Amino acid sequence: MRDASFQSSSYTTGKTLLHIMLLLILLSIQVTRAKAPAETIVEVEPYASTAQVGGSFTVNITLADVQNLYGVEVILHWNASILQVVAVDVRLGFESHSDGVLHEPIFTAKNETIQEEGKYLLASTSTAPAPPFNGSGNIVRITFNVTNVGDSRLNLETKLYDWPPPDREPRISRPIEHTTIDGFFDMTAPTIGIPTRTPSDYVLPEQSVKVSVNVTDSASGVKNVTLLYTLNNGSTWEELIMYYNSSTGFYATIPGQQAETWVKFKIIVYDYAENLQTKNGEDPYCTYFVIPEFSHTTILLLFMALTIFAIVLSNKILAEEKLTGYAG
Hints:
elongated, alpha+beta, 20% helix, Immunoglobulin-like, ten-stranded mixed sheet, five-stranded antiparallel sheet, 21 strands, single chain
């Protein structure tokens, strides 16, 4: 009996240890995933900007989640007929700029604005005894004046270089893989097409209505599309998010309403620069009326009346043809 009890106890202990080992393996996998390095990104921030002619705006070239950084190269392009650089604030040197990148001392090989080409260049590197930089921060801050009407892509080209360890042969910096994200200057509101309704003609009581519309923005892109509808001529409005479908454009469904209800809707669109465009609810295609639903008896009587009318009309036409034939 003792042997059986001992074997049972050993089996139970072994099974428990196996479960613990499996749990530790799973926890190890989760911890490894949690510690996976984040993607290094260099981008124009904010992504989209807007201002009127004569106004100004500022963008940062930001760097996020970098490891072992020792050198940076930045080239920014813009439409020189629309934008003019009026200030450049280089944020390199973490010891001098708490929001910056790279450690001092720093050597800057190039820091140049070529306005007639719409181009800015920056090339800098830390030098010994500076340690490599880890983390996030701003590389440079650029302020533009708006000189003309139009839109402009802020096209960004970047290179990042690492700190070469002493045992690297040859001891030179290597590129750091990263993602570059452009920005936009956008002063043009989105374009809203003519909405369509399904059903397109009569709307019966409690019948929902799908509204579809094509919306475009050639610069920063469409941020969101919202449909607002009212049942009391604008005293109050209900809001619906319009979702995107590749074949029908943006769409939303207005719930079914009672008979003899006037429904009016309008569409509001923002792009990523917060430019606003509205399709006004006063347009004819933005209004519909919920008709009373005919009873089966009414429909039958109407069908019978139309049938009788068609028969009478047909007989009349035949009679006139016969009279015409006799006269000939």
